[in-house]
Design a protein that fits this description.
Layout: E1 8-16, E2 19-24, E3 27-33, E4 45-52, E5 55-61, E6 67-70, E7 78-82, E8 86-92, H1 99-110, E9 115-121, H2 129-140, E10 145-147, H3 158-165, E11 169-173, H4 180-187, H5 191-201, E12 213-216, E13 222-225, H6 239-244, H7 270-276, H8 282-294
Parallel strand pairs: 3-5, 8-9, 8-11, 9-10, 11-13
Antiparallel strand pairs: 1-2, 1-4, 2-3, 4-5, 6-7, 12-13
Helix pairs in contact: 1-8
C-alpha cells in the first residue's frame, strides 16, 4: 500500500497512446492510471506515485473546477479537458459562420462554470452586415469579441487575444476550416518544439496530433490545443439547462406561467413573448428551438 508521503501532485498535459504525460516539478513523467480510476483529462491535477525510474501511476484525480465532455459512441460522455477558465469559440466568414454551433458551445459553457469568449478569425476577408448584426447581439449579452487574422502580416488583433490568455487556462474550439490551428501556431510559435520535447521525454516516439495537449504560454497562462472539432454535446444538458444556457433567457425563466415551460407554444411563455416583441433576439430564440429539437430528450 502506498504511503501518503509517496504521493506527488502533477498536471496532466497530454494523452500519449496508452500512457499519460504528467508534468511535475518541470519534468514530464509517463504515467499509467489505476484501473478503477475515471477517465483522466488534459488539465487534470492528479496525485501520482513513481512506479519505476521516470515512470508513474496516477492514483487519484483531484477535484475539478470545470470539465468539458465529448459524446462518445454508445458510452458515457468522455472528458475532453478539465479545469478550464475560458472557452474561446473561433469562427470565420469562411467556410461560414455557424451560429447554431456557436450557441451550442455557449449553452454548454453557461452550464459548466466556464467563461466563453468569441474569436472572429480571417478579419482580412470582407464581412457581411448580417454577421455584424448577429455579433452585436452577443456583445450586448456581455460576451467579449476578439477580431483577429492569424495569416496577415503582423497578425492583426493577436496581441489583444494573447493578453486575454494570460493568467488562466483556455481552450480554442470551433468548426473545421475556421483557422484554429493557424491561430494556435501563431500564439505558440515553438509548438512543434514543445510537442517533440513531450515525445522525447516520455520516449514515446512521435507525439500524436489527435491528442489534446496543454501548452504553457510564454506570457503566462495555459492553452489546451484540441485538434479537430471538439463537439461538446447536448446529451449532458436537460431542456431547462439548455434554456438557462441562453443568457438573455435567464431573467425571464421565472416569469413563464408554467414551471416546466418548454418555451415552444406554451401559454404565457415569457421567453417567446420577449422574442416576438423584439426584447431579445428572435434569431437566437429560433436557434434555441432548433437545438431543443436536436436534444435526445426533446419531445
Amino acid at each position: 500500500m502506498t504511503g501518503m508521503a509517496d504521493l506527488l501532485e502533477g498536471l496532466v498535459i497530454s494523452h500519449l497512446g496508452q500512457g499519460i504525460a504528467v508534468e511535475h516539478d518541470n519534468k514530464i513523467i509517463l504515467c499509467q492510471t489505476r484501473r478503477k480510476l475515471h477517465t483522466v483529462a488534459v488539465g487534470d491535477k492528479v496525485l501520482w506515485t513513481l512506479s519505476a525510474p521516470e515512470q508513474g501511476r496516477i492514483e487519484e484525480i483531484l477535484p475539478r473546477r470545470s470539465v468539458l465532455l465529448r459524446p462518445s459512441r454508445g458510452d458515457k460522455p468522455r472528458p475532453v479537458a478539465a479545469n478550464i477558465d475560458t472557452v474561446f469559440i473561433v469562427f470565420a466568414v469562411e467556410p461560414n459562420c455557424d451560429f447554431l454551433l456557436l450557441d451550442q458551445y455557449l449553452a454548454v459553457c453557461e452550464n459548466s462554470n466556464i467563461d466563453a469568449a468569441l474569436v472572429l478569425n480571417k478579419t482580412d476577408l470582407p464581412q457581411s452586415g448580417t454577421i455584424e448584426n448577429e455579433l452585436l447581439d452577443y456583445q450586448a449579452l456581455g460576451y467579449t469579441l476578439y477580431r483577429v487574422s492569424a495569416t496577415t502580416a503582423g497578425h492583426t488583433g493577436l496581441g489583444t487575444l494573447k493578453q486575454a490568455l494570460k493568467n488562466q487556462v483556455s481552450i480554442f474550439t470551433g468548426q473545421s476550416g475556421v483557422g484554429k490551428s493557424s491561430l494556435t501556431n501563431a500564439i505558440i510559435p515553438d509548438k512543434e518544439l514543445k510537442t517533440n520535447t513531450i515525445s522525447a521525454t516520455t520516449k514515446h516516439g512521435r507525439h500524436t496530433t489527435t491528442a489534446a495537449t496543454l501548452y504553457h504560454l510564454n506570457g503566462g497562462g495555459d492553452l489546451i490545443d484540441s485538434p479537430g472539432v471538439a463537439i461538446f454535446g447536448l446529451a449532458e444538458l436537460s431542456e431547462s439547462q439548455l434554456a438557462h444556457g441562453y443568457r438573455e433567457f435567464q431573467p425571464l425563466l421565472d416569469n413563464c406561467r408554467f414551471n416546466d415551460c418548454r418555451h415552444l407554444h406554451d401559454k404565457d411563455c415569457a421567453v417567446r413573448t420577449a422574442a416576438e416583441q423584439g426584447d431579445i433576439s428572435m434569431a437566437r430564440y429560433q436557434r434555441f428551438l432548433k437545438l431543443r429539437e436536436k436534444m435526445p430528450t426533446a419531445n
